[in-house]
Write a structure and sequence with these properties.
This protein is α+β, with helices and mostly antiparallel strands. It has helices at 10-17, 72-75, 79-87, 167-171, 175-181, 220-225; strands at residues 4-6, 30-33, 38-45, 48-56, 58-59, 66-67, 69-71, 89-94, 96-101, 108-114, 120-130, 136-146, 157-159, 192-196.
């Protein structure tokens, strides 16, 4: 997954996840989240669930590669990832995500959201490290699965979605049980909406609510040619 959206506030996050946070800085709306952005994630702490800021793009020790997402089947075949799921699981709050449909011209962006949920949860895992000054940094990756029939015309994968009833199980390091059963996208279809959005989202420097506003499927030049 290349981009997602988080349009929420401190109070929605606190109520949804049952946490308290003193910072609102990284809970400001972000309509064009991409690799390298600092975003909030939910982790398990000694005092229960907590929220920290983390960079999207997992960095493993000894590697410069940034891993933004991993398909659930691939995770189960990699002991490094499975260890992180046991020891450093996280939940990534999101409001929606983007997919692009390939065309003969430029790819067309679409925004996918859930009809009844202001925020939903993507399971993931994170790593932490300290720089030479002792400052701690975090980075995370999220899990993806095979796309359901609603998303398949756009892409062959979509983010895994974690149900609220499974939050504690995931954060307590028992995600292997959920992975064995497999996350499935088909049951989510009845609560999902897919809308065509402006090509402004293609530019990483754009970040505003207009990026998720539905527009007609036809391009402007299509209309001019009629």
């Amino acid at each position: 997954m290349k981009r997602y959206v988080l349009e929420t506030d401190k109070y929605i996050i606190e109520e949804h996840y049952g946490i308290k946070t003193t910072s609102e800085a990284y809970l400001e709306p972000n309509y064009n989240v991409m690799a390298g952005h600092t975003m909030p994630i939910i982790i398990q702490t000694d005092n229960g669930k907590g929220l920290i800021s983390s960079t999207w793009g997992l960095k493993l020790e000894g590697s410069d590669q940034q891993i933004t997402s991993v398909q659930q089947d691939d995770v189960q075949e990699d002991e490094t990832f499975m260890k992180l799921i046991r020891t450093s699981p996280c939940i990534v709050p999101a409001s929606g995500f983007y997919k692009w449909k390939e065309t003969v011209e430029d790819p067309l962006p679409f925004y996918i959201r859930f009809l009844t949920d202001e925020v939903f949860s993507i399971p993931g895992f994170y790593s932490s490290w300290k720089d030479e000054k002792g400052q701690t940094y975090h980075s995370f990756a999220l899990l993806t699965m095979d796309a359901n029939p609603l998303i398949q015309p756009l892409d062959d994968s979509m983010p895994c979605i974690l149900e609220p009833s499974a939050y504690d199980q995931w954060l307590n390091g028992h995600g292997n049980e959920l992975l064995e059963n497999g996350f499935k996208g088909e049951p989510l279809m009845v609560n999902m909406a897919v809308v065509r959005v402006p090509e402004l989202v293609n530019d990483p420097s754009n970040n505003g609510k207009e990026l998720i506003q539905p527009i007609p499927k036809l391009r402007n030049y299509d209309l001019e040619e009629e």
